[in-house]
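cron nightly-structures :: item 1 of 1
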Amino acid sequence: MTAYELFDFMISTGNRIDVQWGLFITVHLAILGGVIYVDRPLRPLEKIGAMIVYVGFAVINFFVTKNQLDFYIAANEEISRLAVDSCCRDNILVAHAVSRLDGAFSALAKNTLIGSHFTMAVIVTLSVIFDKELTVRWRGRTLETNNDEHS
């Protein structure tokens, strides 16, 4: 592949990563919003069901994003190999790809992926476990008062 084909591949892979991050953020906002704004505490079976669905989503999202990130990094490494080739020795884009690898981009990206998924798993788990307390705190009133309004 030429440098420009590799850049095209890397950019399209980066777009897929962006889509996965968007999905990751949207699902977490929906879960946290649902936990906070539900009119009653979740029942134990609902909590278990929510956690099963969430863990399934989180695992799939993690591995899809990691797979895309591995492709992205591999394309970046392949572009960097072209830095010594006569076609690309003076190419600024290729030089940029080399500088990204020298700057430990790969490790940072993977650590960000792992850290964000772990952190959000902890936050979602705690919010599902302590859903009643979160609802009271964020809504500023007791659940009993809220239930009286709907009677």
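cron nightly-structures :: done
The chain has one domain: 3-149.
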